[in-house]
Amino acid sequence: MEMQEGFTVFSLLKRAVTMAPDKEIVDPFRNVRQSYKETYERIIGISNSMLSIGISKGSIIGVADYNTLKFVELLFASSLIGTIIYPVNVKLPYDQLLYTIKHARVEWLFASKDFIFLFKDFTKEKIISIDSNDTKITYDDLVSRKLVKEPEIYVKGSDPYSILFTSGTTGLPKAVMYTNEKTVHGAIGMVHQLSLYNSPSSLKNNDIILGLIPYYHLWSWGSLFHATYLGAKYVTSGKFEPIKTLEIIEKEKVTWLNAVPTMMYMLLSAAKQGQLNGLKTLIGGSPISSNLAKKLKESGVSFASIYGGTDMLAISITIIPANTNIQSIEDYARVYTHPLPFVELKVVKPDGKEAKVGEIGHLWVKTPWLPGEYLNDLENTKSSYEDGWFKTGDIAMIIDDYHTIRILDREKDLIKSGGEWIIPSIIESIISEVSGVDLVAVIGRIDEKWGERPIALVKGKGSNLKENIISHLRSASTQGLIPKWWVPDDIVIVDDLPLTSTGKVNKKVLKERTKW
């Protein structure tokens, strides 16, 4: 009897073993490389060992590690024996991290030495050290019990596979459960968008893929699953350090990677001239500024934008539609994305009516891979999921009949001034065009007359930076790019801006710091 039925995550690895058994998974962080065939054989042994110590189908395991080969093995072993894997977001505030462990009902915990201290109150007998001998059972103990036969555990596509948590920027993190088939369909939808359509970040089986996004963010946006589906060489990133990452890119001849804008800024700043030329990147998590787009073009890096989230997976990726007159691919790619296959979307106006092309409203999406609910959270489920649709909380507009989407901002980040909305991301994009600007955040400050007024906080360099920003904003207003009353009341130059675990500017923390 076949133990795996339907669309399972483990079936992606088996495809790689069939199509490209000698292609490598490389772990520069721990200096290991092994073929897909070797990886498959190790996972069989690890899975049987997990069963022997009491980790079985339905058990919930947490994994706290960097993107490493051992993490890769656990992602596939979980699917093989039907355990439910929670990639722990180690960048969450400590109290939120502990909340996620409890809410997910984690029974066993795999942790590397850099993170094991976070779980001092967890049941010690059920902590497995990934890279040290600090626990009763270690990862190497599991590997040493090698068995070459797949365990006889019946796992089907509809079985639960993984728990993920939102980043918790507006309260406690919310949990979602993804089945094997929803995970696979979401990953394959991305591959098809990147491989079959004209995307600036095209992805093929001869690409060498580096997953810079941590596994606790949608399994590195599915990069591991893309690689196994295509039979492509895959490189894990370990701990993100710009210089080290550049060395990895050069040594392993990486052609494709995923990243958030702050990661790309750091790589570009550290790179030698021409070092990134020809690289393809998929960028998301926060808006791509025109300044970053310019730097990417100058460095010979092509990119596409991706839009999605923990509670919906990938929704849209930039492609260049046929018969479209685009003067600058970079300016187009940083702003616009297009729905993945099988994604439905609509923009809903405040009055509840569906917006027409060019009208602004709330973005709702429907996909085959939507989880449909927040785990053990009826209140948030009722407010976010309705009749198969997910209310994203983003303000957007559909700009043409191709269903090209422009995401304008999070609803919670909009500024209401004199009863009218101001969209911070548009102002941020304009400010980012000024030479010397590295990061910018526009937030609302309480105003007695207008309710709120925009203030810009800017991290950057230059003796006349503030004056140059003011001048550029006034020029944008004169050109009609923004209304005059959108121009911020003040420009505050700061040494740094707080970031979320996904690399976005944390406006919640920023507002608390400034007490605005």
UniProtKB/TrEMBL annotation:
Keywords (alphabetical) are:
Oxidoreductase
In Swiss-Prot or TrEMBL terms, this protein is called Acyl-CoA dehydrogenase (Acd-2)
Per UniProt, residues of the AMP-binding enzyme C-terminal domain are 427-504
State the superkingdom: Archaea
**Which species is this record about?**
Saccharolobus solfataricus (strain ATCC 35092 / DSM 1617 / JCM 11322 / P2) (Sulfolobus solfataricus)
Select a single GO molecular function from the record's annotations and give it.
Answer: oxidoreductase activity
Family annotation (PROSITE patterns): AMP_BINDING (PS00455)
Report domain AMP-dependent synthetase/ligase positions: 14-374
- Tell me which SUPFAM superfamilies the record gives: Acetyl-CoA synthetase-like
